[in-house]
Design goal:
Layout: H1 5-8, E1 10-15, E2 18-21, E3 30-31, E4 35-47, E5 53-60, E6 67-75, E7 84-90, E8 96-103, E9 110-122
Antiparallel strand pairs: 1-9, 2-9, 3-8, 4-7, 4-9, 5-6, 5-8
Length: about 150
């Protein structure tokens, strides 16, 4: 068992932050072939008083022809600010997964802080991290014992 998170979980920024609005952006896909699951976390900013944001996960066998995964959806509460939505897909039935965020168009829409995908239970250790997601290399610290 690996004791280091960054060597056991692949973390990818699959959708960059976007300003307040009501668009329905689809994020970049992740290839889950060598992983047991993938958790998607969408960061939410300021919402209009009646705005609701939904995170839906879609799957595909070839990264085209996307379909919604049954039960793989989370929705915010209207008007709640600075929270996150998370959907965990354990043992995905599709090789490729991607997030789709729906922001309602009422009361000014919502700010969206982006989506992170964390692929876990890799078949091969250690996992490699995508160079396009990190601003700097992961830092590993070890607690000193006295």
């Amino acid at each position: 068992m690996l004791k280091n998170f960054s060597k056991a979980v692949r973390t990818t920024l699959v959708h960059a932050p976007i300003a307040a609005g009501s668009t329905t952006p689809a994020g970049q896909s992740v290839d889950c072939q060598d992983f047991g699951g993938c958790a998607f976390t969408a960061l939410l900013g300021t919402h209009g008083t009646t705005c609701i944001t939904t995170l839906q996960i879609q799957g595909s066998t070839s990264s085209t022809g996307w379909q919604n995964l049954s039960g793989a959806v989370a929705a915010s509460t209207a008007g709640v600010d600075d929270r996150y939505l998370q959907v965990d897909v354990d043992r995905p039935s599709f090789r490729y997964l991607r997030p789709v965020v729906t922001r309602s168009s009422t009361a000014g829409g919502s700010e969206y802080g982006g989506t992170i995908a964390q692929q876990y239970a890799p078949r091969h250790h250690p996992v490699t991290q995508p160079s396009t997601s990190y601003a700097a290399a992961p830092v590993l610290t070890v607690s000193a014992t006295t």
